[in-house]
Amino acid sequence: GFVGALALGWGLQIALQRPAPSATVPTWRLTPYAFPHLPSLLATVTFGWLTYVLVRGEAWSRQVNGATLAIFGVASVGMAGLFHGQANLSDVLAGLSLGVLWLGVPLSLASTEAAAVGVSVRARAETLSPRQRLQLLLALAVPVLILTFIQPPIAQSPTYHQFADSRTLFGVPHFLNVVSNGPFLIVGVLGLLALGRWRRRNGWPAFAAPIEERPYVVLFFAVAVTSVGSAYYHLAPNNTHLVWDRLPMSFGFMSLFAAVIMERIDRRAGLRLLAPLVVLGIGSVVYWYVSELRLHGDLRLYADVQYYPMLVIPLVAVLFRSRYSLASEVYGIILIYAAAKAMELLDRPVYQLLGVVSGHTLKHLLAALATFWILRMLRRRQPLAEAPLASAAESPGAIVGEP
Predict the structure, then answer these.
(1) How far apart, in whole angstroms, are the C-alpha atoms of residue 290 and residue 356?
(2) How far apart are CA 323 and CA 279, in angstroms?
(3) 144-193 residue pLDDT tens
(4) Angle value at C-alpha 395, between 392 and 397, nearest 5 degrees
(5) DSSP assignments along 316-371, one per residue
(6) Which residue, 194, 305, 188, is CA-closest to 257?
(7) Contact (Cβ atoms closer than 8 angstroms) between residue 371 and residue 223
């Protein structure tokens, strides 16, 4: 748990790159960044786990006393960071929140009671109406937006464009980072061809109705275009070229999010949200680039577009059943993409370790593998027999306003 929390906090600090305030007391730092406050995160996980180990099975009064001491210890670490000027309040709150969330992982694995609670929570979640499920997503979005926008704008760091492997081969600069985008084009085209074949079969077996392919059309198109945009960016990395890398990725994230809503929450809602979510994704990149041109770059909205689905999709997968078989494949997809993000953060260390390929090149290959895993899932799955198919009110014509 501690090692995982350390990796989580370190990775987020490098990804978000919020500069730490000038501390009045010199301190050792793992990174020069402050968000989230790493000591608060680690203290929450450490004190929480020790309390669980020491007082589980004890009398209620001892459990309360242990929890009180743990809370005091964690609060002391956070206040010390504020007092010495090592972090802002939002940094500490983010560290505490992430620590609580991460602490739930080892506790749920170690406690049969926690497992029973998880089963009960999922059973309760299955009774929620589609409207209530969507309200849950909205309720989760609000604190994410508040946490994002209470901090100052985040400009794109110039160091982002300084990749570990800049070798020129066959006359192509940053050769491996450029050519490793090829798998995106292959998987994207294969996905579009498969969707066309399924459409001729009225959607079967991947979809209960042909209209449900729409988010995946956008997804595989985005992946194919990403291969071109990302290759163009890596030929000469700068903010102007980065726009063409991020644009297709942004609406690819959003189309996958719409597909998850369609299959696990409500089909009509997922299809209706597809266009607004795609517009939001594109708009987040446009807003960032315009803000950079005005010399006050702001990545906050783009960060929400990229990371909010990554946080919510696993939760939705845990709470709500899919209307299709092979629903557990989503966890493999999430793990592969998480590995891709880890390689992106560890670009230089991986290159120094392997000497042949960098972390960013591996990130491209793993992200393409995650997309291929989506295609593999679609090829093998079928609608569940007990899953309700579209009613007359939810027919394709009703959804898109056709007669």
Answers:
(1) 37
(2) 27
(3) 787 777 777 888 888 889 999 999 999 999 999 999 999 999 999 999 99
(4) 125
(5) HHHHS--SBS-TTHHHHHHHHHHHHHHHHHTHHHHHHHHSSS-HHHHHHHHHHHHH
(6) 305
(7) yes
Dihedral sign for Cα atoms in the order 196, 197, 198, 199: positive
Q: Residue 261 is encoded by which pair of tokens?
A: 């809503």
Other CB atoms within 10 Å distance of the CB of residue 216: 24
3-state secondary structure 349-364: HHHHHHCCCCHHHHHH
| Stated length of the chain | 403
Q: Tokens 């994704």 belong to which residue?
A: 281
Contacts of 255 (CB under 8 A, 6+ apart): 215, 216, 218, 219, 222, 274, 277, 278
Q: Are 154 and 90 a contacting pair, CB within 8 Å? A: no
* Global pTM value: 0.73
Structure tokens, 60: 């209620």
How far apart are the C-alpha atoms of 316 and 310, rounded to whole Å? Answer: 11
Closest by CA to 383, choosing from 322, 316, 292, is 322
